[in-house]
Amino acid sequence: KVTGYSAGVTETVRTSGLGAARGAGFRRRSFVCAAATSGTMVEGHGVHRVAQRHRRLLLGKVFKATSPNGRFAQGAKLIDDRTLSRIEAIGKNLFYFWGDRGDGGKNTTVVHIHFGMSGQFKTAGFGKLEATKNTRLELASESDDIVAHLSAMTVNHGDMEFYDKKVKALGQDPLREDADADLVWEAFKKSRKSVGALLMDQSVIAGLGNIYRAEVLFKAGLHPETPGASIDHETFTNVWQISKDFLRRGVETGSILTVEPQEAKVLGPPWTRRYIYNHSQCGRCGTRVKTWDMAGRTVYACVKCQPLESTLDPPRKKQLAKAKGHVPFVSHCAPEPRQAASALDAALEKVSAGEKRNVEHVALVEESTLELAELSRLKVKELKTKLSDLDLPTSGKKEELLKRLVKHRPGKIPFKRRR
Question: What is the pTM of this model?
Answer without folding.
Answer: 0.76
